[in-house]
Design goal:
Blueprint lengths: L1 E5 L5 E5 L2 H8 L32 E3 L5 E3 L16 E2 L3 E3 L6 E3 L7
Antiparallel strand pairs: 1-2, 3-4, 5-6, 6-7
Subcellular location: Cytoplasm; Nucleus
Organism: Aquarana catesbeiana (American bullfrog)
InterPro entries: Ribosomal_eS31, Ribosomal_eS31_euk-type_sf, Ribosomal_zn-bd
Length: 109
């Protein structure tokens, strides 16, 4: 195989090279790469936990068949019916519209 090489002075030189040697020279960069080792572990995507029979937390049925709500519904027009407020130890909080009702603590004298 003939290869044409241009020198720094501008002359063109032809070189006779076997194709096997030429391929081996050109493939010089195709080597195995070193595997990266990370210092911190990969982040895992959060998996949502399904709570079975979650409706039992919101309603209670007594012996007579009367249904009562265990949690407070959000009164905001933005939320609508069926949106319950979370009950914390010192407040009720709506996660949809961020409405918060704080409890007043009795002051000791």
């Amino acid at each position: 195989m003939q290869i044409f090489v241009k020198t720094l002075t501008g002359k063109t030189i032809t070189l006779e090279e076997s194709t096997l040697h030429l391929v081996l020279r050109l493939r010089g960069g195709a080597k195995k790469r070193k595997k990266k080792s990370y210092t911190t572990p990969k982040k895992n995507k959060h998996k949502r936990k399904k709570v079975k029979l979650a409706v039992l937390k919101y309603y209670k049925v007594d012996e007579n068949g009367k249904i009562s709500r265990l949690r407070r519904e959000c009164p905001s027009d933005e939320c609508g019916a069926g949106v319950f407020m979370a009950s914390h130890f010192d407040r009720h909080y709506c996660g949809k519209c961020c409405l918060t009702y704080c409890f007043n603590k009795p002051e000791d004298k």
